[in-house]
Please model this.
Amino acid sequence: MKLNIEGLLVYFPYDYIYPEQYSYMLELKRTLDAKGHGVLEMPSGTGKTISLLSLIVAYQRAFPLDVTKLIYCSRTVPEIEKVVEELRKLMEFYAKETGEANNFLALSLSSRKNLCIHPEVSSLRFGKEVDGKCHSLTASYIRAQRHSNPNLPVCRFYEEFDAVGRQVPLPAGIYNLDDLKDFGRRKGWCPYYLARYAILHANIVVYSYHYLLDPKIADLVSKELAKKSVVVFDEAHNIDNVCIDSMSVNITRRTLDRCQNNVDTLQNTIHKIKETDAAKLREEYRRLVEGLKEANVARETDIYLANPVLPDEVLQEAVPGSIRTAEHFVGFLRRFLEYLKARLRVQHVVQESAPQFLKDIFDKVCIDRKPLRFCAERLQSLLRTLEIADIADFSAVTLISNFATLVSTYSQGFTIIIEPFEDRTPTIANPVLHFSCMDPSIAIKPVFQRFQSVVITSGTLSPLDIYPRILDFRPVTMASFTMTLARTCLCPLIVGRGNDQVALSSKFETREDFAVIRNYGNLLLEMSAVVPDGIVAFFTSYVYMENIVASWYEQGILENIQKNKLIFIETQDAAETSMALEKYQEACENGRGAILLSVARGKVSEGIDFVHHFGRAVIMFGVPYVYTQSRILKARLEYLRDQFQIRENDFLTFDAMRHAAQCVGRAIRGKTDYGLMIFADKRYARSDKRGKLPRWIQEHINDGSLNLTVDEAVQLSKHFLRQMAQPFRQVTTSHRHIP
Amino acid sequence: MDDQGCPRCKTTKYRNPSLKLMVNVCGHTLCENCVEMLFVRGSGNCVQCDTPLRKSNFRVQLFEDATVDKEVEIRKKVMKIYNKREFDFPSLRDYNDYLEQVEDIVYNLTNNVDVENTKGRMEQYQRENKDIIQRNKAKLTREQEELEELLLLEQQSNEQRRLEVLQEEQRQLQAKRKSKQTLLDELEQSKLPATILLAQHKVRAAQLETQIEQQKQNVKPTSLFSTGIQIGQTVSLQPLPRIQEVLYQYKPLQVETYGPPAPDLEQLSRFGYLNHVRAAMPQDTAGGYTSALACYRAIQDAFNGLFPIRD
Model:
């Protein structure tokens, strides 16, 4: 159907549109008009993706000069594929309606592991191996060496692409990962490099967050993307953690040992090159004396995305004299490394700020701040000059040099925590240096600065105003949309008491309380008798789950549950979990019914949907607070309080509630779906917790479902399920209309 | 670290956790016991390289790699002599060249390359730049100054936070004590039954508690983004409304003086008023003073309010 959104003609590939989709598009259009950033929340399963795509594509067609590109960032490969499929549908609709083939180019990009078609390389198991192997076949100097020695191995796909592929642009169309691979096979071109090259002139790019947020990858892939792009972060409720992770560095003893090997290799290579090809080192030296001027010109003319690991000061100055020659630099690395080793030999926890660290390093090993700042850039230059084929081997030393640059560049927003052992195993020495980023805005700042519109969207973004604060940007639109329903297909219940009136709570004091555990068990038991098909239960942590399940086993509750349904448990092992998941789905499919016990913040809670009969009820045992005793978290909370005036409790509750919302949101993936959402903790009834749930869940919590006992909850569930089990006719006239 | 050991007696850290490794200027390791034994006389030769060593120069080895210990030692010495700062050089390029030169010296001394020559160069430099070395001894580099400043700031803010927390606690304690005292007083003097008083007190205490809780939570409430925009303010996309107004027009000020019109500033000298006024000195005129100004003001004063006010 065709829509008129404030004067913009939008083609929408479905016959019906929900009112919330319309208002979503409206807000989105206003964001684009204002060339500003936006925060939009809309429940999952209401067609967020298609609304986004159809509006932005329409906008691109109407104002091709204002918006040249859509960069759509999602989290996982399946999600990326889903987006591309929606896009394909949209484009087919366009072709049908307008009767002309449009010249849109849209493609998805993923790692080499997902895109490689080289028979040997693609058979490797780990992404890192694939990258390293590919690099050893395609690096420029390897290929240069091949001119003299044609026996060296070669990737014919890359060679073919390099010879022909760059001149011929990718024909217009929609490409998902498989399409790219097919196209590559047909032409004999490397799909990965083809995709990386093609994103520069594509109209729509779909890829993972990391290609924009992780400074190391962003620098390679995304730095030349046009300024007039619209960036969309989908499923962005965890975006602050992604930002923080991409800037944080953890250094263990093993990293340092590997780094030591790297440095030794570097030194040997330098010796070798000095004997054979000293001119190369001299050339590098000359370049460094001149300074990193080329890079600077590029940034000043605004061709590239800024890189937080490469601060502006580095570009404006030449490399300091103390690390200019290769030997001196290796000596410098060696000193730095020895210093870190000495620091890791601690007996107690140390927490210090970056300036304290810098002062100490100067006192101990006479390393100034300035050469540290240039460390990452200098190492890159050295690795290029030495023509080291397998970059993957040098990840340790790259990590250390990034750490050096970050610690000397940012005096705020980072903290250094050295822990001699893990909290859980205080007897085993396992020293770790956490260089932890506390300010997510550092990583995302270049994105906000560069692109004209950045849209952050997800099903669960409540409370909306906290995201602009922690990411430090100024949105022009902030909106939360609810779900319009033909029937109330979600039923949130807050169970606060057991049948014996014992308060249910996962708070620390009552964790070991048998009464609470028994009541939790009863809740699950009774639910397993009432709810058809699948039940998913979430616990707050693996440890807590293990304790409870063990205790249920002793009390015989588990046995009783198993009379009703099969039980599957998520573990920390990914393979085991995916096995459990598969079997769980099988059990739901054949009508036996099953219960999946899993953990909030785990794999199941984040990426896996339980549509229809795979999840008729979700039970959230407790409030999923993070482990508050972790020093990194404490430092971050303190920073949030001091810099952004966000109170510790507010942030913790916000974080717990967004994960709870993610968990219970797994069950409802559309309007025809239905499911129970059971919050089994009396703390959910408080307004400060309840108020932080997304609006579309909050709306259905009424006073009658606030502080229920297990029996009452079972009664209500029975009633709800019976209602929902009636055949649902697609009523097309009454509730679906365009406002 | 466990596999580190003394090269002479072959004791390792693993077998003797309290093993203390020492290192001297040559960068070779010995354990504390061996040092005690070999250098009873206070001096001797290194077991590995035969360099003459003093016992007093032995230090505890800080790093796993003893050459790093040695290098740091040498570097500290060299830095004492080569202590020029960035602003001692005309350009950054020169400074960088100088830094590289220093690095070269350290490298040579550490790796025993051309030691004699290098030492000679150092001495020569020391002679030539005696003044600068002396002068720069106490000066920190610019970067270090910045660091010190940052550290100071950090300390201050930490201290302040600590004080605030302390004050807050003190205040709460006092408030609690006060409410307890009032209860005791009331029980003593009031004629109401004790149960009611107790109930009242309970309510008051709860109120106090919530108040304290609120204050605790009250960390500088902000309503602004860092950009200065109000939180929760919806930004309108409509163009600003144009306000229609009449242009301002200047009208000269009319003052009723109730006297005859005073002569103008230009007329003063013509009418001879200035003859009786002290001429302005050259230093007076610097600030824009002229004798006419003073005279003008005095005459205006004199002409003012001479007529009766007509109603």
